[in-house]
Amino acid sequence: MTLRVDIRQTLGRFVLDAQFVAPPGVTVLFGRSGSGKTSIVNAVAGLSRPGDGRITLNDKLLYDGARRVFLPPHKRRLGYIFQDARLFPHLSVRQNLRYGGWFAGQHDPADFARVVEMLGIGALLDRRPGRLSGGERQRVAIGRALLSRPALILADEPLAALDEARKAEILPYFERLRDETRMPILYVSHAPAEVARLATSVIALDGGRVVAQGAAAEILGDPSVTPLGPRAAGAMLQAVIAVQHGDGITELSAGDLRLLVPQIAGAPGAAVRVHVQAQDVMLATARPEGISALNVLPARITALRLGGGPGALVQLDAGGNLLLARVTRRSVAALGLAQGQAVFAVLKAVSVARDGIAGAAGSQR
User: Fold this and answer.
1) Spatial distance between the Cα atoms of 5 and 186, rounded to a whole number of angstroms
2) Cβ pair 326, 311 in contact under 8 A
3) Nearest one of 162, 157, 226, 161 to 198, comparing CA atoms
4) 103's torsion region: left (phi>0), alpha (psi -120 to 50) or beta?
5) Where's the Mop domain (predicted)?
6) Distance (Å, rounded) from C-alpha 141 to C-alpha 160?
7) Which residue in 235, 253, 265, 310 has the most C-beta neighbors within 10 A?
């Protein structure tokens, strides 16, 4: 299944003009608040009608402005996961889940059991939503969406209302959903670490327009794409666990790059994704000695973007991987940094947060 969107819509003073393709996997709509993310999702869901354009899901026409085709929401075969779970409070978890099957027009016990197992909610089936934590409610909402037999899942900032502990609880289930289904998932977020962890492709939005789209590693590592500003800049590395050291450090291998991070679970050879924030990367023109940082990585500057203020973003090729470093314009001048220059990227192992490391299955799409 592939979702194709080409729409134009005027909402007061805001003009949405967006074109993109969402293949199987998680396509993240990424941008500042007010950039048009939710407007796009609502147009795909049929909750709003664009002024012009066309939306198709594989060979199924959902909307065509020129031909005046507008398929109502209940005929689009979509599963929608909101910020708040929106479960029926008077129904048990089991009944909420079966509502998804009722909406699809069938109840398959085997499918029900598979979804319950995948989301780890078997012990919750007889509870009502009021007795669930926020993370548990979101897992049930995901299950209800899956059991509606959707051809596409829409997730509008589904983790925004959760604290960090609940986010950490839910993210693995979205990873499993990404890796065990072949449907497109259109996912709205403005959290860079969340995007790096989940996305197979990224649609960067600014002012109602698509400013960049492509594979997650390419978009997140591009210094010219800053939909949330330079403070949110960072890169995504696709790596494998090389060695589990006895002092609580895991050594990762990504191409010719070796990276030391706080210990993560997994056997050697297991694939992982690593989110490295640009603000955590320092640059040196000569290999530094006598420092506590465990990662001193030979790299070459591939691009340099000066901001309007005191900052600059430097794109690096480190062993075949894209990294970003956020430095000051003063540092650029003092070090004489330029495209093509050989440098060393310095990164403390503890700078790589645990919530920025996750399983990488499906990341090659």
Assistant:
1) 11
2) yes
3) 157
4) alpha
5) 290-356
6) 14
7) 235
Question: What pLDDT does 339 receive?
Answer: 96
Q: Are 64 and 7 in contact (CB under 8 A)?
A: no
Measured CA angle at 105 (ends 100, 111), to 5 deg: 55
Lowest-pLDDT range of 36-40, 100-104, 108-112, 270-274: 100-104
CA quadruple 259, 264, 270, 275: dihedral sign:
negative
Over range 63-73, report the average pLDDT: 95
* 107 contact partners, CB below 8 Å, separation of at least 6: 98, 101
Q: Give the burial class of 275: count Cβ atoms within 10 A of its Cβ; 0-12 exposed, 13-18 middle, 19 or more buried.
A: buried
| Contact in structure between 121 and 140 (CB atoms under 8 Å) | yes
pTM of the entire structure? 0.82
CA angle 164, 208, 5 (to 5 degrees): 90
Least confident of 21-30, 59-68, 304-313: 304-313
Mean pLDDT of 174-201: 86
What's the CA gap between 22 and 184, in Å, rounded? 7
Amino acid at 17: D
Helical pair 93-104 and 109-119, crossing angle rounded to 10 deg: 130
**How is residue 41 written in tokens?**
């999702």
Q: Which domains does the chain have, with CATH numbers?
A: 3-224 (3.40.50.300), 234-359 (2.40.50.100)
Cα atoms in the 13 Å half-sphere on the side-chain side of 61: 10
Residues sharing a CB contact under 8 Å with residue 288, sequence separation 6 or more, in sequence order? 296, 344, 346
List pLDDT tens digits, range 98-108.
Answer: 987 777 677 78
Contact between 79 and 153 (Cβ < 8 Å):
yes
Residue 15's beta-bridge partner residues?
A: 10
Q: What is the DSSP letter of 163?
A: -
